[in-house]
User: What shape does this take?
Amino acid sequence: MFESWGRIVYNRRRLVLALAALGVVFAAVWGTGVFGSLQKAGGFDAPGSQSQQSASLAAGAFGRDAGDVVVLYRSRTQTVQAGAFRSAVTRTLAALPHSKVESYQTYWSARSPQFVSASGRATYALLELTGGSDAARIKSFDAIKGRLAPRGLSTQIGGQIPTEEAINKQVTSDIGRAEGLSMPVLLILLAVIFGSLAAASLPLAIGGIAILGSFTALRLLTLATAVSIYSINITTILGLGLAIDYGLFMVGRFREELHRQSSVEEAIARTVATAGRTIAVSGVTVAVALASLLLFPETFLRSMGYGGVATVLVDMLAALTVLPALLAVLGPKVNALRIRRSAGAAGATGATGAAGVTGVTGAGAESGGWYRLAASVMRRPVLYAVPIVVLLLALGAPFLHVSWGGTDARVLSASAGPRVVTQALNRDFPGNVTAPIESVVTFPGPVSGSPARGTELTSYLAGLRRVPGVTGAQVTGVRGNIARVDARYAPDPLSAAARSIVSRVRAVAPPAGARAYVGGQTAQLVDELASLSRTLPWMALVMAGATFVLLFLAFGSVVLPVKAIVMNILSLSATFGVVVWIFQEGHLSGLLGFTPTGTIDPTMPILMLAIIFGLSMDYEVFLLSRIRERYDVTGDNTASVAGGLQRTGGVITSAALLLVIVIGAFSASGITFIKLMGVGMIVALVVDATIVRVLLVPATMRLLGRANWWAPGPLRRLYARYGIRENDRADGDGADSDPAAGIAGRPDVFSPASRAASVGRTP
Assistant: This one.
């Protein structure tokens, strides 16, 4: 199937490139408009939860009642009670245009002590902006933000809309910086790896197509559902990262086949039949891993799933259509603009010293640095495997003490205005002025004018005040049959202590015949954690099940998929442990430039789980595909593992290095959770591409021996009929084989003499 597809692309290469060019133009013109259609922030709420019901009821009864903008006013010499202080603030706010500001609230209009700081020299104003959406309210804010500062007072601006705008600008800046910094570095490194500028440009071209294509897919999705702006980050990371992976594998294999085949058409056909098949299996596996994010109801995670799946599919399709067409047009000129004389030469090794990216043929597959490394590992598999497993488990140990928290203005840099305001409100003003626990109580009839219901509401207030941790409670609104009660507390709104208070508040019995819906920022986090914990097992089941099926169909073994999943679990545990050690416990915070909060946002490990699991399987498929090719020809497990690592070790380590460059730019983000994801992915890539794939996989495959390729008889027959493989040749060397046969009928290649020959020593 794949070989036939390669011939089709070769014969219609100019048509394929013309259609691709039209698609790129459309994506560049229309798809890049996605930035104006994305949800600017938020998306972490659990739909249908009690906190969301509370927010909906409150909005319906009392209006939006949102402090879109919080303006903090301070004076070094005057108190809030001073006439000059009051007149300066009120004159400034009164001069704001009604077309932009719907209403505002101050200490002098509310006469509430919560508006005055403990020192008495600071107060704040709450502004509600005009506009039917966050995007419209951001425009209103842009029109007034230069008119909020009176003379004689220090003014700082925060709140929901300024926070969203700051995050939006930071995300856009991060993407521009990441692309601007990484593209030139990637081109240089690819040129060094391939030894040719022509070959080096191909993965970057596929990456550009993938990013534009995923922008277009995301914009199409915004017509039907909400999509978070953060999906753009995953689109850029995956778009470039997978393009590099697929480009390295496809271009390297094509250059290899050019020396084996009699024509460019044959080289394209064999490249697509081998590397193309591997890319298809890898792409589907990564897409399924990311699609598991769609199981979650939270917009943030679903958006990441949309963006990730769209990017992977575009990358995969571009690698199976546009890249072979480009290679067909270039032919031997793929080695043009050489920076090394040996680039593209038969048997040449890559710049990394081993490589496989420039072609390893014939005896080259049975020698070289990666082959010798694998042989060394497989001579002493236990000596390698046990310490590595212990090391990975030790790195993962801090994750056992993870503390979950939410996302607030602290995700911004320490100097960002919204973060400064949030910290000042929490520090200087009593009673959770911006994050109370909000209980919306619905009665069977009107509250006003009913002494009985007033008495019941008073009794409910008294019950709330008796809750341990609650420092006060008051009615903040009554309309019709709905009453809103705000409870104050001392702990940080996103702390475990505050979540415990929410649970106790929810346990307070509402008035007879009434229902209480407890919401607010802390309650939203409680509901989010509950929603994530309910869905996470299903996500893991889908990822593991789909991976098992796909790897079985690709390699005909039930042992290899299980081994691959276990390897990924070890790699992920080490990554999550390092993330907790850095971002929760605060190690290296000065070097990385963030403020630790003592917690981890629970959506981040879930997102990293999907991305890292997918990328790890990407490398696993690359490695196993070459091992399987050699095993189908020789039947020698040990030699096949060494030969497979020799052929792919350079590809995997080069791909990981290049992806680290891409992600490294995001690790410098001014938004903490994007920095967390970047650092976590770098750790995962380094661990996976070196310790796991290069050392642990060969060791475990040597210990498992022939069991690596075992499958029960019925499944072997299933693989023979439906396996994802080519039926004519298993390897570019031209040897015939029967991949469906598994280990049946193999000679005893595990005799002492055979093992010694495989690893180059005597028993």
Q: What stands out?
A: The chain is about 60% helix and 5% strand. The longest strand covers residues 470-479. Confidence is low (pLDDT under 50) at residues 346-363, 727-763.
